[in-house]
Amino acid sequence: MTEKLDENFVKSLVVIALGIVKGKSDPYELVNGAMEYLISNKEKYMDHPNIKAIAVLKMKGLFIDEIRKNQKMTSMTDDEGNDLQVIDEKQNEISERIGLKDETKKVLSAIKTMSEKCQEILMLASEGMSMQEMQEVTQVKSLGTVLSRLSNCRKELKGLVA
Amino acid sequence: MIDETKIMQYADGTLPVEEHEEVKKAIEADPKLKELYNSFQETGDLLFKLGNEIKSQPLPKNLQEKADIIKTWKKPVTKEFGSFNFFGLFRIQYAGVAAACCLMFVAGFYADTFISGKNAKSGNEVIALNQSIDAPKDLKFRGIPKEDEDLSTRVTNLYRYFNQDQFIQDINSTIDNLEINEEFETSLEDNDGKRVKFLLVENFNANGNNCKKVAFNEPLKLSESDQGTDVTLDICKINNNYEISSINLSK
Q1: How would CATH label the architecture of A100-162?
Q2: Which of A122, B45, B83, B138 sits most deeply, having the most CB atoms within 10 A of its CB?
C-alpha cells in the first residue's frame, strides 16, 4: 500500500532514526533533514511507492555526513590525548526529551549498547516494519539474513533486559 | 530441527499458516524451544511498546510543520483508493443493538504486520463483539499504534456489518473457480450502498485443508479515526464447506 503521509509517518521516522543515530546524534534533527529533503524534492518523491525507504536512506546519509563532520571535531584531544566526546551529552538530553517511561527507557538504553546492526534492526522492528520492509531499508540481500539478524538481536536484547 | 527464526515468526504471528503446526509441535515437545518462544514474545512486546511510546510523543514544532506540509501531498489513502465505509452503519446500529452476539474463530485475530494474535489454547476463540473488547491475556492485539487505540471498535464495526454466514453462502459455490488476483463481489454492501469487492490473494494448505486468503479490495473505514484498515480473511474448506479461520487487520 502507498505510504500515508501524515504525522504518524514522521513519528515512524523518529523511531527509525533512534536506531540510526546510535546514540551519537539527535534523531529529531535527522528526521528534520530527511523531511526537508523530501519536501524540497516533492515532484520526485511524492508518488514514490516506498517513500519511507527513501527517507530512511536519506537519514542514514545525513548521519554519515554528521559523523564525518564530528570526526573532525573529535580529532581534538584532551590533556591526556583522548578524543573529546563532544556529542554524548546531547544524546542524554534527547533521551530525557523523548520522555519515555522508565521500563521503555531501559529497553532503549539496552538497545543503545548493542551493535550498530542490532540497533538498526531492532528499531525498525519496533517501528512495526515487515521483514520485507526491513530488508529494503537495510539493503540486506537476503530475507533470511534479516530474519536471523533480528532473531539474534532479540535474543541478545532479552539477555540485556532480563 | 526447527530454525529459530521460525520460532520468532511464530511468536510474532508472521509465520505462514501452513508452517504453524510443525512449529507448534516442536515448541510443545522441547522446553528449550518453549523458552525461546516465550523470549521472542517478550521481546516482541518490549519492542512494540517502545515503538508505540516513542510514537505517542508529540512532534517538535518544526517536524509538525513538515508533517502538515506532506499531508497535503496526497489525499488520504481512504479517498485515494476509495474505501468501504463501515463506520456510519455502526453509529446507526449502535444504539439499537442490544442482544449479545458471539463469534467463533479458529485462529484468532491478527493485527498488523509485525506481531499478531496469540494462538488460542483450545483452538477456538469466543469474543462478544457487541462489547468493547479488553484484549484477553491470552489473545494479544499487538501492532496497534496506541494501547488505547480503537482496535476493539474496528473489530466490532467490521462484524456489525460483515455477515460471515452470508459471505460464506455467497462464495461457497464460486470461489473454487476463481484465479489468483481475480476480483469478485458478494451481496455485501458498505454503508454508502457501494458493493464491496474482494480479491483472491492466494491458495494455501493448512492442516490438510484447502484454504484461501481473500482480501477486501479497498481499505475499510472501521471507526471515526480509522484512515483505512486492510482486512484479509483466511477461509478453509472443511467438510466441503468453506469456513472463516482468521481475520487479519492491518493498518
Answers
A1: Orthogonal Bundle (1.10)
A2: A122
Query: If we measure between CA atoms, which residue out of A11, A16, A5 comes closest to residue B55?
Result: A11
- Interchain proximity B48–A14, CB inside 8 Å: no
Examine residue B48 and state whether it is found in any structural domain, yes or no: yes
Same domain, B179 and B242: yes
- φ, ψ for residue A18, nearest 5 deg: -60, -25
pLDDT tens profile B168-205: 888 888 888 888 888 888 888 776 667 888 889 888 88
Q: Is residue B71 part of a domain?
A: no
Residue-averaged pLDDT of chain B: 68
What is residue A32's predicted lDDT score, i.e. its pLDDT?
94
Looking at chain A, the domain(s) classified CATH 1.10.10 span 100-162
Reference B14, options A7, A132, A85, A30; nearest CA is A132
Q: Is A44 on the interface with B (CB under 8 A)?
A: no
Asked, for residue B69, whether it belongs to a domain, the answer is no
> In terms of residue numbers, what domain contains B88?
77-250
- Whether B153 is in a domain gets the answer yes
**What count of other Cβ atoms lies within 10 Å of the Cβ of residue B41?**
19
Instruction: Judge whether A15 is closer than 8 Å to chain B, CB to CB.
Output: yes
Instruction: Choose the closest CB to B54 out of A2, A14, A147.
Output: A14
**pLDDT value at position B37?**
93
Within 8 A of A32 by CB-CB distance, chain B residues are: 62-63, 66
**pLDDT tens profile B74-100:** 644 433 334 444 443 322 222 222 222
Predicted model pTM: 0.56
How far off is chain B from A88, nearest CA to CA, in Å?
Answer: 20
Q: How many structural domains are present in chain B?
A: 2
Residue-level pLDDT at B173: 81
